[in-house]
Amino acid sequence: MKGLLGRKVGMTQLLTARGEVVPVTIIEAGPCYVTQIKTQERDGYTAVQLGLDETQPRRLTKGQLGHLKRSGLPALRRLREIRVKDVEDLTVGQKLLADVFTTHERVDVKGISKGRGFQGGVKRYNMRGGPRTHGQSDRLRAPGASSSGTTPGRIYKGKHMAGHMGNVPVTVSNLRVVLVDPERNLLAVRGAVPGAKSGLLVITQARKQG
Length: 210
What we know:
- The chain is mainly beta.
- Helix content is 8%, strand content 40%.
- The chain is built from 3 helices and 12 strands.
């Protein structure tokens, strides 16, 4: 299992050798540092912790600084853990660049979706809303009935209603890597990825190849 941390730059188009226009998302992937390695014998599972975004030490807590200084690493603002099957090729302090991945490889991209605030049922769950005619005046975007009175006499837990929308972890699977630029630490993946521009992304090798 391979992985990197990165930031969403934005979307554009690339022209392939066959003349096909491909919509892609540009990701600034790395450089990342291996800040911790977890093993089955010591921690009960196998994982690697990656760090991104060098920053001023005063922006981190003393615990975070101590954790990084033990490994001789600079102050890193973002730390994320990725489950891996094998850590034999990794060492603490190792620097990972965008060339971890290759062209045509499939990846999963995880990020935080754009926050939409408090939204009604029509926008949040694509509800139909009320009729646009026959005398109604204020039910265009209403969700309609929520439950029945006697039975069950309450609203079931999990009922689709108005509420907070977005700002949750979202994973997009099986995106194809179209371009790898290790000199500028850029990846281009076909399709859209979650989150706003400059949002933090976790890029891992696709779990479901297909």
